[in-house]
Amino acid sequence: MNCVIENLADKVERAINYLPPIPIVMDELLKALNNEDVDINTLVKIISKDPSMSMNVLKVVNSAFYRLPYQVSAVDHALRLLGLKEITMICIACGVYKALAPSYNAQTFNLDEFWKHSVATGIIAKRLCKELKIGDQDIVYFLGLLHDVGKVILDRVAHDIYAIVIQTTYDESIPLREAEKRLIGESHDAIGGLIMKKWRLPPIFSRVAQYHHAVPDAPEEDRTIVAMVSLADQMARVRFLGFGGDMSGIVFSDTDAFRELETASPAITEMDIVKFIWDLEEVDEEVIEMERLLSS
Ligand SMILES: [Fe+2]
Ligand SMILES: [Fe+2]
Q: How many angstroms separate the alpha carbon of residue 32 from the centre of ligand 2?
């Protein structure tokens, strides 16, 4: 068994090196954004070089998600309207989605369920951010959206075994990462952190992916934002299911994520968490819309 695990761990490491690189346009965009004097025209030129990226940006900008009162049909208009940070985040989401899309006919786990859980986590994280008045609402949604990408990679590397991993979480009521470690030797949080680094996304992306199941281990400066996504992840699993681990009977106020947020914003203790979760009805619609946009 150990030998099998070692081989798989090797395979995961090799697969990360062979995974499709992040689209060039995203790489250029992130580099340009590191330059403080970057102007909108430079960014428009970069995005416009990739027609499918431009199209995706416009689709997302015009979606129910942003509720704009009119149709936006040009990238520069979108940039002026939503700002550089928001548009870059949309490009990151579209780029990662594209890089992770399975090849034709490849067997995968239920990707629809996966993206639904991811979108729900992003939306809930953004709401928590607003409610608690901490963190950056523009970014936290996208951190939630991409927190679990390590699962897609593990499934791609070892699809048959990953199906057993998922089944084991239900049969034994254990957390997904425990089953992943036992059967594959690596867990999706560690793998997610590695891939974000490989893609050279802003460091907060790899930290959220790496520590969303181990909030106290996150570097101090990022711990609050990691806790916010972690709590949103657990709420998404209670509210919308999603796979991996039994969430029944969870007491949110006993979680590391809640305790971390409590120090950053005592307002969380005033929140009626049960009501907050059950009031998320309109999120259903946003989840379906965003999932459709990303996959089209
Ligand atoms: Fe996770
Ligand atoms: Fe998750």
A: 31
d(CA 265, CA 275): 19
Rounded to two decimals, the pTM is: 0.85
Length of the chain: 296
Domain boundaries defined on the chain: 2-295
Ligand nearest the Cα atom of residue 213: 1
CA of 68 to the centre of ligand 2 (A): 29
Domain 2-295 sits in which CATH superfamily?
Hypothetical protein af1432 (1.10.3210.10)
Determine the distance separating the centroid of ligand 1 and the alpha carbon of 244, expressed in angstroms.
8
Kindly report, residue by residue over 243-294, the tens digit of the pLDDT.
545 566 678 888 999 999 999 888 888 888 878 887 777 667 776 777 677 6
